Amino acid sequence: MSILIKNIKELLQVRETHIPIVKGKEMNILPTIKNAYLLIDHDTIVEYGSMEDIQGLDADEIIDATGKIVLPTWCDSHTHIVYAGNREQEFVDRINGLSYEDIANRGGGILNSAEKLQNTSEEDLYLQSSIRLKDVIKLGTGAIEIKSGYGLTIEAELKMLRVIKKLKRDFPIKVRATLLAAHAIPKEYKGNKSAFVDLVIDKMIPEVANEQLATYIDVFCEKGYFDLEDTERILIAGKKHGLVPKIHVNQFNAFGGVPLGVEYQALSVDHLEELNSQDIEALKNSNTIPVALPSCSYFLSIPYTPARQIIDSGLPLALATDYNPGSTPSGNMNFVVSTACIKMKMTPEEAINAATINGAYAMGIGNMYGSITKGKKANLIITKKVPSYAYLPYSFGENNIDQVIINGLVY
Ligand SMILES: N=CN[C@@H](CCC(=O)O)C(=O)O
Ligand SMILES: [Zn+2]
């Protein structure tokens, strides 16, 4: 099966050869071809170019993209989409004056989601999560990282990871799984955090690695959750079992989590709403990518990750949703890209690079996803008729997507 997309107003993120990451000033460059075509064979991009050079090309199916923009699907490198129920009451409580911290301190927050998940069957959890996954694909996400972390017992963490495995089996998009057992201290371990960290290290990590249920190891490194020592112990144990660090740091406090992540070769350090100059220095000359989650800042009314400071220091930046029931009940990468431009002063070029090539890097799939490159997966967004690509972040809240192609099939 082949598809030829013709008369594309502008084809975005065209990279003749694969580049793994874009950093600093390069982030402001988005290579495009105006009046372009693109040929898909089965699930692969095999050819593209200017309409002037299209002669001789034919395909089983022709899509006329007159007036429309084509770009690679979003790579959402940070989500928690496997969860049970919702937390809209906490949302109302925050409107009425409680903070995220207040809610967590009285047993809500992550512990609330953990209780719900523990009491939900694997089948129901799969059903609830698959609805969300379908929805985000329609919004243009073609690759997604999904974390555990609402289980907090061995059984429930394994249940979450098995659901992620089934989603990976049943859906055409790329799915990467992360073990985030150290997401909160369970009620039963209150005052005895080190025993819970021992459980994560001695039981959960070996079991998950043994069953090959995760690629990455994550920790919520934050005051009131897991400190630097806990984080270091968990990263060491994860690495010993072949899990690559990819961690939550600096959401509310900056106290050394970023340099620690870099020291343990984390693939990414995510959140960074609070960031200091030592963090920036640590990230320079490292292979660790910072990841910003602007929908979380929006929803919790906390600071936005200082994208300008990061990019202007020559660093790369990726954008992701953080889709979860507590801090970001949205998996809309289009909103993330818009919000990054509106609130973080990223240019459309920077934001699109951050949500495609750099998103793919932040989930370790850059060789096959994130750009229009021959041989990469045919995962594409075809927009509605739009005046320019800057219109995409500009028209925030509007759905500009006409079609999503995943592995060469119109979704
Ligand atoms: N901060 C830690 N974890 C999630 C939120 C978890 C929750 O509130 O359920 C996050 O990335 O924002
Ligand atoms: Zn998160």
TrEMBL record:
Annotated binding of 4-imidazolone-5-propanoate, by residue: R87, Y150, H183, Q251, S327
Spans traversing the lipid bilayer: none
CDD domains: Imidazolone-5PH
Signal sequence annotation: none
GO molecular function ontology, one term from the record: zinc ion binding
GO biological process annotation, one example: L-histidine catabolic process to glutamate and formate
Key words, A-Z: Cytoplasm, Histidine metabolism, Hydrolase, Iron, Metal-binding, Zinc
Pathway per the UniProt entry: Amino-acid degradation; L-histidine degradation into L-glutamate; N-formimidoyl-L-glutamate from L-histidine: step 3/3
Residues annotated for Zn(2+) binding in this entry: H78, H80, H248, D322
Keyword Zinc: yes
Sequence ranges assigned to domain Amidohydrolase-related in this UniProt record: 300-408
Homology family: Belongs to the metallo-dependent hydrolases superfamily. HutI family.
Primary role: Catalyzes the hydrolytic cleavage of the carbon-nitrogen bond in imidazolone-5-propanoate to yield N-formimidoyl-L-glutamate. It is the third step in the universal histidine degradation pathway.
Record-given protein name: Imidazolonepropionase
